[in-house]
Amino acid sequence: MQLQLTDFSIYQADSLFLRPDSTPFWHFLLKNGIEFKKKDFPFLTTSETPRIKAVFDWHEYFALSSRGAALSYLYRGFGNALNYVGPVLDRERKHGFNDHTDRHTLWVSQTGVELLQRAGLSFDGVGHYDVKTELLMLLVGMTHDLGNLISRKEHSQFSVWMLQRLFKNIEFNSPEWQAVTYAILFHEEPVLVENGAQLGAGSPLQWALVAADKMHVGRERLAPRAFESGLKNKAFEADVHILVNALIVRSSWHLGVNEFIWHLDFSVDQLEEKFSAFSKGNSRLWLPRMFQDKLLGEGVRYRDTFAKLFMDLYKDRLNMAAESVFLLFPYVGKCTVELVDNDTRKKVGSGAQVVWVGKRLLR
Questions:
Q1: Which domain holds residue 66?
Q2: Listed residue (9, 10, 88, 74) closest to 42, CA to CA
Q3: How many distinct structural domains can be found in the chain?
Q4: Got the DSSP string for 292-346?
């Protein structure tokens, strides 16, 4: 598992923090009306064209003894910068982009830690789960999407580019650093495909990151811009990502006998106060007309219509998550996606429904 950073032209010799069109980062924020404070970015100089600077020490990081201490250490260097990833990405779509603030990175970090703990694997698969593995999982979970501050396209490469400059005292031949950069660089399918890389050639650290990242769906992923659009600007019809995530109350998982089960709690009734933008005042989530047409014309309940939308949208990420799970848990033979709902109106479909099963390929 050797990573040759020079294979990627995106890595630059200097540390200028520029957008791909050479716009300095501060100028980009101003131009797009994103309010900011330079002090929220401790890792950037305050000059007109900022440079990235080292705020972490690799040896200091490994001297930490707990997840809480590691989070505190990382936040001192990031400041509030993680909460700008969302607003930056929001500019890429009319109704906003899936949330990528620290709500996402904390969820991915926690879930990745839980997966590695249950698998009992060290970061490289050589030994058993330990404190070092926990620190590394926390690091990749918190930083895998940092590169979105520079560009959504090739963001995994930019995340690694940033890590190179955020940490000092890094030895590039250390297995820990190689595992971190490899996991972040190859947590998205396009980069794997473009470089002819296989998930199986990676490490448990990468597999846990991929599985956790792909399973984070649901209402907490909706961007503020989606709520601003709401019904008045037809956000559900305009962007199926918003609709599908709004219909998932929560995402969770558990290990069964020879089976990994991904639960999606589906609901069209349960609303939070902030979801009033998607309701017509009856405390129920408003759904596009096709849901009603399918129910009345073909007898298809809402949950089944949702299941098809979900599969059409996320089939690729399901396959990638399942492959990662199989690599983490060799005794698991299948991955199942299960929708659960309590049908209060006889339109949804009550109980649990299996919507997808991925089986381990015998080699």
A1: 1-216
A2: 74
A3: 2
A4: HHHHHHH---HHHHHHHHHHHHHHHHHHHHHHHHHHH-TT--EEEEEEEE--SSS
Point out the domain boundary residue: 168, 191, 216.
Answer: 216
Question: Do 230 and 210 have their domain in common?
Answer: no
Q: How does residue 344 score in pLDDT terms, banded at 50, 70 and 90? A: low
- Local structure of 349: helix, strand or coil: coil
Cα torsion at 230, 102, 86, 231 (round to 10°)? 0
Which residue type, as a one-letter code, is found at position 296?
A: L
Of 159, 182, 216, the last residue of a domain is: 216
Which residues are registered as beta bridge partners of 263?
Answer: 252, 338
Distance CA 60, CA 46 (A): 25
Closest CA to 76 of 126, 39, 111: 39
The residues with which 51 forms a beta bridge, in sequence order, are 16
DSSP string, 180-198: HHHHHHTSSHHHHHHTT--
CB 216 within 8 A of CB 111: yes
Distances (CA, A) of 56 to 160, 168, 170, 179: 14, 6, 10, 18
Q: Is the pTM of this model over 0.90?
A: yes
Question: 59: which 2 tokens?
Answer: 């040896």
Question: Looking at the structure, do residues 120 and 225 belong to the same domain, yes or no?
Answer: no
Residues 288 and 334 in one domain: yes
What residues are paired with 264 via a beta bridge? Answer: 251, 339
Q: Which residues pair with 337 in a beta bridge?
A: 262, 356
Look-up: residue for tokens 């792909």? Answer: 214
Q: What is the pLDDT of residue 280?
A: 81
Give the SS3 label for residue 238.
helix
State whether 98 and 232 are in the same domain. no
* pLDDT band for position 11 (cuts 50, 70, 90): very low
| Nearest-angstrom CA–CA distance, 273 and 306 | 23
Per-residue pLDDT reduced to its tens digit, 182-229: 999 999 887 887 888 889 999 999 999 999 999 999 998 988 888 888
Question: Alpha-carbon distance 285 to 280, whole Å?
Answer: 8
